[in-house]
């Protein structure tokens, strides 16, 4: 005979949920409208109805190990049609917000990312770091605004690539990747604790790498799930904005990687590196295209959020990410414009702000809303591996479940 388990609500967790966007969870009376209208929820054991109940009961451990909160793309249909105004979509987003800052340490960064009052600390770390580099370079050149031998403005005179890229961003990138590795490992450990539903009648991917490749090929590259969220103009605006941002980041990442490689190729005499690049240099053109795409995507998403009348209760997480990407884009563009117009002081100031914003975007990535991109991909891959989400399952009408 099975032994009944007494539910022990975590009241502090309920308060935490309510403070980060889930303040309306008590209004839910389990009508299941949210699960019925969700275009992404599987037919079996659907979401977000069960998450609403678990949240009301304060079942933190169960929710933190719930894979479905990562499958939700927050299209907002459940919140729009909720008869009680409980905003299920906001609850799912709130759960992810809590997960960002609790999956991996240092815990202080997760705490700082949760409130605008800690923003000066987040800005201060890279601001002081790059200000010290600027002061050292200025003392070497005898001026805070030096120019090259031919009068050209060179960012490297104040922010040498070896100091600002290799000795800062490379270790920072390694730290972020290792943090994500630990975060995904912890995420999978939580998933492994949960009960499983096995599906008979199709062949599952043999390992997580196969599942990951399927997710990247079928969902990440196409952003299919974002598009499937809904047919309304607001849904399509969100889809288009995310798509522009994704491919713009890809373009800018390629430019950054190739520039870094060319810098070291020049050092070792493999290939002579010329900088600053000519305006029509292919890398410079790709960078400009990426910057334009970034602005277009930001306009889509920012306009959508500003015009929102209640579908999405914007939080600090939402505006922090949009704000940082805006600063990255604007300061990057202004640095180029001021350099071409030979405004020396404005060029270095813009580039200084650009480095600060890039550091904040990359360095705090695992604890920011952008971190959900990595965790969601990991969760989608895991879901395919265990059969929670699969093309074969979705198309199979004669499913047999063994609990």
How would you describe what is shown here?
- This protein is an all-alpha fold.
- It has two domains: 11-102, Alpha-helical ferredoxin (Fumarate Reductase Iron-sulfur Protein, Chain B, domain 2); 107-386, no CATH class.
- It is built from 20 helices and two strands.
- It has helices spanning 11-19, 33-37, 49-57, 60-64, 68-71, 77-81, 88-102, 107-112, 119-141, 155-158, 161-166, 169-192, 208-220, 224-228, 233-267, 282-307, 316-340, 344-363, 371-386, 391-395; strands at residues 198-200, 400-402.
- The chain has a two-stranded antiparallel sheet.
- Helix 9 (119-141) packs across helix 18 (344-363) and helix 13 crosses helix 19 (371-386).
- The longest helix is centred in the middle third of the chain and has 35 residues, at 233-267.
- The two termini are 18 Å apart.
- 34% of the residues are buried.
Characteristics of this structure?
20 helices; 1% strand; 403 residues; 65% helix; Fumarate Reductase Iron-sulfur Protein, Chain B, domain 2; disordered C terminus; mainly alpha
Evaluate the radius of gyration.
24 Å
Shape from CA axes? elongated
From the N-terminal CA to the C-terminal CA, the straight-line distance is 18 Å
Largest sheet: 2 strands, antiparallel
Number of strands: 2
Uncertain segments: 390-403
| Strand order of the biggest β-sheet | 1-2
Query: Helical segment tally?
Result: 20
**Based on the structure, what is the oligomeric state of the protein chains?**
single chain
**Secondary-structure-derived class:** mainly alpha
Helix content: 55-70%
Beta-strand content estimate: under 5%
The residue-averaged pLDDT reads: 80
Topology pattern, helix = H, strand = E: HHHHHHHHHHHHEHHHHHHHHE
Domains, number: 2
